[in-house]
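pinning this so it doesn't scroll away 📌
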Amino acid sequence: MRLLLVEDDPMIGEAVLDALRAEHYAVDWVREGAMADTALQSEDYDLVLLDLGLPGRSGLDVLRSLRTRRQTMPVLIATARDGVADRVAGLDAGADDYVVKPYDTDELMARIRALLRRSAGRAEPVFSHMGVTLNPATREADVNGEPVSLSAREWAVLEPMLQRPGAVFSRSQLEQKLYGWKDEISSNAIEVYIHGLRKKLGADMIQTVRGLGYLVPRQ
């Protein structure tokens, strides 16, 4: 999952960035409304964590523009503005949820997971295919009932493919699930993680589509 963090406070931003990466999300962090607009028009995100009090352009303006462009990814407002009118304005502008600073990090992560599940059309956090079960809420995985340990990046590669059996994911698409803008990407990173997943899940779990990418078969 790739998230956009829009937060101008450096201390809050660093703390949230660390918490999100600990949950295995790829995160881009911007500190101004104009930069958020640029990012949202040039990259695909699974969720936006949006502050309202930004320098230059307000978070509310960013949100309105995003919805005007018919971009439908979930938006979680995280702000110090705790008035009822502020909450109503944010939700009416198209936010999916609203949390007030200072917030508990565990609650913030739970709200993010809930929005991502809802966006993916899954009411339940656990999903299975071909004997492999992933629980995004607990980050537990098993194969035919036996627990298996996946690294953060192995999980990030596997999850989108397991959610969409039969869909081909290019190496570039999978890299976007793993890295932010400034992260250095080795040329064979995806191949390394695919190899590790095949060893843990079985050689037939992930198939190579020559010249296109990788897929988890429908059956």
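📌 and the second one:
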Amino acid sequence: MKIATFNINGVNKRLDHLLAWLAAAGPDIVCLQELKATDGEFPKAAIEAAGYGAVWRGQSAWNGVAILARGCEPVLTRAALPGDPSDTQSRYIEAAVSGILIASLYAPNGNPRPGPKFDYKLAWHERLKRHAAELFATGLPVILAGDYNVVPEARDIYPTRSYDDNALVQPESRAAFRALLDQGWLDALRKVHPEDRLFTFWDYRRLRWQRDAGLRLDHILLSRKLTRRLKGAGIDREVRGRDGASDHAPVWITLRD
């Protein structure tokens, strides 16, 4: 089984890119982020024609998350992250697919900091931590996949001082990600590639793609029941290099049956 996460940065604007990647990579389950489309604007027909069922939660102009499943319909279990009923941003969706509970998440960026956006980022991650602990305690096979907007370690960003004040690399942000690993979740990409410098995002500005000036923001975390099934993991970097591409590349893992 192949599971992937992809911050598509506009699902309709980059629909051709998405469909081409689905056909070439053949993932069984896909978590999408930054749909930048309302529920009614989600390209359901095109994705069904590509062989995928889908659940999604859209939002106009920004945010938005979805889960695609090849050859079946995901069973929606949750359309929002619990803990704050007043939070209307579309950043979390959860569904059951082929015996796995899978979440697609798009964590807040948090910039500029200090300020309310950074406060919201930390509060959102605290809610994620609480919900993740409940999911982990069930003992079920669970995957938390998406754009966490956290660079976990110094090796997960190109050598630079330009991000020193950025919310993505702050100690509080890294501590929030570490708190999930401390619960027992496995960072699948880092498990398979323990020593490599890994990037999943390259900003459009300052020729960062051409200079390979990247960051690792997109992560797939596995609950304990799935860690023994982890077979492989990688980044489809070439997708980022196409004309008009998202600024993120798809991240994927494979699990043994």
